[in-house]
Structures are given as structure tokens and as C-alpha cells.
Amino acid sequence: MDSEATPGGMARRTFLAAALAGTASVVLASCTAPEPTPVPSTTPPPSPSPTATTAPPTLPPGVPAPTAMRRSRWAADPFARGAFSFDAVGSTSNLRADLSAPVADRIWFAGEACSMDAPGTLHGALASGLAAADSVARTAEDGERIAVVGAGLAGLAAANRLVERGYDVVVIEARDRIGGRIRSADDEALTGRPRGTIELGAMLVADDEALAELLDEAGVEVGPLQPPVDARTLEGVWAPIQPTGIDAITAARAWAETWPFDVGLTTALAASGAGDLSTEPDTEGVPGPAPADWLGYTLQSGVQPLTGAPARLVSARAFDPARLSQPASLVTGRLADVVDELAASVDVAISSVVTRIAYDDRRVSLRLETGESLRVDRVVVTAPLGVLQTDTIRFSPRLPRTHQHAVSVLGMGVVDLVWLRFDEAFWRTGAAGDPVREVLTVVGETPVVAAWIDAGLAGDEPVLAGVIAGEQARRLEELDDDEFRDEVLAALAPFVAAAPTGGG
After folding, report:
1. Helices and strands in the chain, H and E counts
2. In Å, what is the CA distance from 439 to each residue of 14, 61, 361, 364, 454?
3. With the CA atoms of 43, 396, 36 and 81 taken in that order, what torsion angle do they form, in degrees rounded to the nearest 10?
4. Whole-angstrom Cα distance, residue 490 to residue 484?
5. Where in this chain does the record put each Amine oxidase domain (predicted)?
6. In principle, which of 143, 277, 351, 473 could form an S-S bond with 414, CB 3.0–4.6 Å?
7. Angle at the Cα of 435 (from 432 to 439), degrees rounded to 5?
């Protein structure tokens, strides 16, 4: 569908597409060094499973009780510690290049956090893994033994490339499964069909040739996601999305580039005056969002899903508003088939937690949590940024200061998904002439759920996937299942008995 451009601003139909793509591109493969203040590692929680609630739900008017629910908790996962990296205050593209640099020609890092072109995405992780493998191959001698730490997309891609080059490769994975942040779960209760699959990690993918080839080879189907053209207001109408917030962020970024030092996005909005917007509706006498509401909307339902962090922590210089306009596709197949395909040709040791990596000018020694050790010639580390910001893996000797600085400045964002199934799709109006909405958002308040994706729309199934980002994601992860369920159900109240579309 063609975009409807707004003079001086962003095409309305493309807003949030890439924000949600960033949301969905929560992936395993980061590359990092230990942060100066380590956080003790913990025992991993069980893999996400269907939620069995005990207390009756507290239902907002018009919102029925779900028949099934499933949630992710990536910040609480000790083998993830978040969703993906973001450019925190002080970040530059050079930091990611520093992370990619080999250490003594023995250690390489790979993953989305090492991608300068597409951080926080599946295709960024894929490209980084392949690039690291190519770099290793330019240095290693024939027949060398190479270890890859992490069996996510970046790690398995690197391992495959190295196997193709004739090296002896072993992949070491901490979890009891492969895939990392690619987490496909069979769930008949939610999908309504035997062996129906939902995604608890990445569920949207960007347009990338190399990734598309992998998806095609694995038989993973995807379909274009129609980004929202309007948002639900507190007055109960659908209001066309305005470019006000994006324009303000663009102006704040321009101001930040002239400032002597980097600041957070909210600071730049305030100091530049770009965030000084009216709280009165644009159209006199007609209730609806004010310019200030649209800025809040962009920050809450755009910036946070894309970065996994509140705007105050996001670099005003590094954040590119154009990322919000990139299209995305919804995974309708089983995304884990991609990593299963990659893993078929490599040796993978699961449930093997690496706790120490020692290196010199001749070899690399990996110490496992079990006390066992493994000696290899070189290693590619694809553990997530959030993991290596803890004391889970220690390096001896310590990594170069450039690597340590990069990991201490880059941030780790948090994005979670919640899946809900109902007896009927109450959010679909079915009214004649009313547009079909694949993405539901709210303007005029701070939402608990940044966006709802009507994941069951194509198959006429009453299934929603909610995107929870940044501070809300961290807060909700602390709640038990009953408390969590009540909060996300309350977030659906604005979409009950949807009123006709409002004026622009």
C-alpha cells in the first residue's frame, strides 16, 4: 500500500513499522566485554510456558477473560539480560566497530551489538556472524579448532561459514536449546491448532536479502505487516497519526549534534525547545490528541519499542528517526526452523555455560561451569551484550580498554511479548467501511503495552500479541502471572466498542 506523505514530516502509513521491527528483532547475538561492575549470575528461569493463573482476572468493562496467555521475560533470563542493544547516551558507531575488532587474533566478537548498520536486528546479527567468520578465516591456519560461544543466529551462521572453510568447529550453548533470542514455542491453546507456533522473541523481520534467503531455505513464511495509520484516543475515536513527534525528535537531534557533548533524547527535546508543544488539540472545538500527545505517542510507542529503553537514556545524537519508517514483515511460520537448519551441519554442545575465557598468543582456553575446560585455537563469542555486562564470563587477561569502554557505554534494552487468545476478537469492529487494523496503539496516555499486533487476523483467529517495552517491560517482569494478566487486560480497554475514525 502506498504511503500517504505528510508535508514536512513522515509518511503516516510507515510510522512504527521499524519500531516494531526493532521490537521483533530481539536476538541472541550480541558482542561484549565485561562491565567494570559485574552482576552475579543466577540460575536461569524455566523456559516460557503457557500461563496457568489461579485468581480470577480483574476485567475492564467490555474486555473478556482470555482463554490462554503466554509471556516472555527476557530481562530476567540470565542468558539474555534483555532484548537487544541500543545507543545509550555517549554512544557512537565507533563503539560497535571496537567491539568487532579481534583480540590478539584469538578472540572475535559477533552479534547484533557489533553491527554498525543494523544493530538490534536479526539481519544485523547474521551479517556480523558471517563477517567474524570471514575475519577468523583470514587469520587461522588450515585444520585449526575454532569454538563459537552461543548458538543463536550469529553464532550458528559463523559456525557454518567456518565449517564450509574446513575448520574443526564446536558451538557451545548455555541454554538447553539452540536459537538464543529466537524462541519459537508450540502452543495449541493459543493458536487453536495442533503444533501451532508462536514467537516469544523475534516475530518481525526487516527486508534483507541474506536473511530472506535463509528464511526461504528453511521454509519460514512471512507476510507484510501493515503499520498503523491511526491511533485510539482517550475519547474513544481513531485519530490519524500525525508526524508531530517525529518532527520534534528530528529537530532535537539536529540541536544535539551542535551541543558539545551527547545528551539523552528527552534532554535534547527540552533544551532545544523542540519538545515545547501545545497541550491543546490541533482542531478547535474537536476533542482529540494535542501536539504534545503526539510527541508522547512517538516516544512511548515508537522510540521505546525500537530501543527497549526510555527516551532519557537514548542518545539524542545517535538515534535516527528514519528508523521508524522502515517496513517490516510478520513471521507466520516457525522462525526457529532457520536456526535448526543452520545447526544441522555443526556440532553443538547445549547446557554448557562458559564462565572463563583465557587466551595468549598461542591458544584459547574455555572453562565451563561444570569445571571442565576446552582448548581451541580461536573463539568467536556471540553471547548477548547483557550477559557479558555481568560476571557470567570472565576474560584473562582482561579485554582491551576499547572493548571495555564500548560495552560500558552501549545499553541493553528490554522488550517483551505477551500473547493472548480470546473466545472472540472484540477489538475488530467489523463495521462497514471501517479499515482493518493490524497494529493497535493508544495516544494520549502512557501505555502499559506499546502496541498490539493482531497476530490472528490472517487466519481469523482471536489472538493478539502485545509489545511491552522499556520501563514498562522491566516493571511487569516483576509481577506474578495474575498481576501481569490484569495489567495487560486493562491496556485493552481503549479498544472495546471502537468508535468511528476521527478527523485528521
Report:
1. 15, 23
2. 12, 22, 53, 48, 6
3. -30
4. 10
5. 61-136, 153-228, 335-497
6. 473
7. 140
| Distance separating alpha carbons of residues 498 and 501, to the nearest angstrom | 9
The C-alpha cell that represents 114 in the structure block: 557489533
Distance CA 454, CA 485 (A): 18
Contact assessment for residue 153 and residue 27, using Cβ atoms and an 8 Å cutoff: yes
- Count other C-beta atoms under 10 Å from residue 280's C-beta: 10
Give domain 87-220+334-404's CATH superfamily: FAD/NAD(P)-binding domain (3.50.50.60)
In Å, what is the CA distance from 162 to each residue of 81, 105, 360? 28, 16, 22
Mapped to the 3 state alphabet, what secondary structure does 136-202 carry?
Answer: HHHHCCCCCEEEEECCCHHHHHHHHHHHHCCCEEEEECCCCCCCCCCCEEECHHHHCCCCCEEECCC
Query: Rounded distance, CA 109 to CA 467, Å?
Result: 29
Q: Give the Å distances, CA to CA, from 104 to 195, 365, 395.
A: 47, 14, 13
Question: pLDDT of the chain along its 504 residues, tens only?
Answer: 333 333 333 333 334 444 454 444 433 333 333 333 333 333 344 344 455 556 778 888 999 999 999 999 999 999 999 999 999 999 998 999 999 999 999 999 999 999 999 999 999 999 999 999 999 999 999 999 999 999 999 999 999 999 999 999 999 999 999 999 999 999 999 999 888 999 999 999 999 999 999 999 999 999 999 999 999 998 888 999 999 999 999 999 999 999 999 999 999 999 999 999 999 987 665 567 999 999 999 999 999 999 999 999 999 999 999 988 888 999 999 999 999 999 999 999 999 999 999 999 999 999 999 999 999 999 999 999 999 899 899 999 999 999 999 999 999 999 999 999 999 999 997 666 678 899 999 999 999 999 999 999 989 999 999 999 999 999 999 999 999 999 999 999 999 965 455 544
Domain chopping of the chain, boundaries: 87-220+334-404
Omega within 30 of 0 (cis) for the link into 291: no
Using CB atoms within 10 A of its CB, is residue 132 exposed (0-12), middle (13-18) or buried (19+)? buried
User: CA-CA distance, 180 to 383, in Å (whole number)?
Assistant: 9
Residue type, 86: F
Q: Comparing C-alpha atoms, which of 501, 423, 428 is closest to residue 189?
A: 423
Alpha-carbon Rg for the chain in angstroms:
23
Cα–Cα distance measured from residue 349 to residue 296, given in angstroms and rounded to the nearest whole number? 46
Torsional sign, CA 114, 115, 120, 121: negative
Distance CA 388, CA 406 (A): 12
Q: Which residues pair with 501 in a beta bridge?
A: 238
